[in-house]
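Message: I would love a firmer grasp of how sequence relates to backbone shape in proteins. Thank you; the sequence and its tokens follow:
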Amino acid sequence: MKKLSIAAIILASLAIAGEAFIFATRKQDADEVHCRAIQAGYHIYAPPMPDTLSFCGERVPLNLYYVRESLDRELVSNMYYQSSTLFYIKRAVRFFPTIERVLREEKVPQDLKYLCVAESGLQCVTSSAGAVGYWQFMKTTGQKYGLEIGDDVDMRNHLEASTRAACRYLKDLKRRFGGWTEAAAAYNCGENGLGRRLDAQQQSSYYDLLLNQETQRYVFRILAIKLIMQNPTAYGYHVRRCDTYPELPTTEVELTGQNVDLVQFAADNGTSYKMLRSHNPWLTASTLKNKSNKTYKVRIPTKKGTEYNTIIRGKHDTTVIESI
């Protein structure tokens, strides 16, 4: 009886071992098939690095390994942050025409539009530090450069007004630091902050400074955004013209008076409060107090300005965007 029990245990152990071997073999075969499928159908590419690069006409010293590797880091981050980068390209079709026009009028380089992308992603957003709008102005700086900021109006959310203010601020920064690259860095960390670091480290170039991590990466992020948006297909982005967000057809009307009910104002002008706020995000309350009795210009969507088929005249344009 005892011998039979031992034999049974041995047979059971062999059976278990056999099943384990078969399971392991099957798993190994399945893993091999899975790995071959990954290798055949999934590829992660290192982004192409340019031989030469400039920002606002200023040479980026890619011959320095730490400059090249810093740029590479931001290219990888933005190339593989697909949803955000895709939205940058889509929104740029709507917002870049206004930004580019103001940059020309203010006589500043067009590359600065990519600073706006880095700041806000071309959205009216508010940072944890309290910076607001497309160009992420703090309240004191925005007011210094002529932006009205109050309880019911915040011009940091006005695309043209905030772009013009940003241009003037950046021109002042360039006059102080001598270059657009340093102006961009100071836009991020503050002019006094950059000035102290330049003096303390006895340097004159952004690329040679040791900075806090955010500012250390900031200009390189702008450069990476520029490279991708100027040549989307090179970085894997195939965006058709019909996939983008076009400029919205609007008419301009005057808004005057005090304690204006904006819900009623919208209705009187053939639109909704939602559309009024959407086209004029600088209006921040349902009532315009307007204590100074100013006259504002607001944008109202045209009669068919909210209909997709009217807005997207090129709705069937499947041309892939080559550059933004």
Remarks:
- The chain has twelve helices and six strands.
